[in-house]
Amino acid sequence: MNIDTVIETVVEKKPKIVSVVGAGISKASGMPTFRGEDGLWNNYRAEELATPYAFSRDPKLVWDWYRARMRILLEAEPNPAHCSLTKLEEKNISTGIITQNVDGLHEIAGSKKIVEVHGRIRYRRCVNCDHFERWDSNEKAQKSIELPYCPKCETNLLRPDVVWFGETLDSQSWQQAAEWTMQSNVMLVIGTSGVVAPVSTLPIYAKQNNSLVIEFNIEQTPISGYCDYSLFGPCEETLPEFTDKLIERMK
Ligand SMILES: [Zn+2]
User: Fold this and answer.
1) Residue 44 in 3-state DSSP?
2) Which CATH number fits domain 3-31+78-118+169-249: 3.40.30.10, 3.30.360.10, 3.40.50.1220, 3.40.50.1470?
3) Which entry of 82, 106, 118, 131 is annotated as an active-site residue?
4) What is the whole-number distance in angstroms between the Cα of residue 128 and the centre of ligand 1?
5) 106 has catalytic annotation
6) Of 24, 65, 44, whose CA–CA distance to 188 is shortest?
């Protein structure tokens, strides 16, 4: 698909753009997917560690794994795809970013309107009370080997502020995601295969809302069939080209 044709169609809509983002956008930032990131952890699957059951059975193991992931994350920086979404926001063309990623790279790239539907790995919260805190400093992430306890209620553990397998999404986050979808007339689906519910339903809502749905992915995905356009290639290349041309065209 010719990118200029896509941009002309978008411009005609007087676009209000919502972006639905998945792991593909962070690959170029050096963020590995869940598996095989650290030799030590090769024998574990995310589905075995990122669960409430695993945490109740062996919180030390789960925390060691999250610290290993954090050490990788601390090396990662936003890439041109993250930055291009920040530019859309600065030009007031963006309604918001709905991300399935927990890495916090949109925020570091300078985006403000973000909903992190699967939570945020750089924060941890008490399993019992409302206390939460950032823990992504080098000192906290790398040096500590102790289990973290809540400084407020003291006897309860802190856990990563992410949505684990078997848990439901935070209802406020989900409501925000649905609202942004309805307030927009263009949806960009970036680096996500669209398989994981309920986020996978957002492009369907968008279509029902007469929005234009444009996919950015390296290959065909299960949602390609009902996207208006699919722009194939690494999204750190295709997305900046798209947003730069769009912003230029809308001047
Ligand atoms: Zn507490």
Assistant:
1) coil
2) 3.40.50.1220
3) 118
4) 5
5) no
6) 24
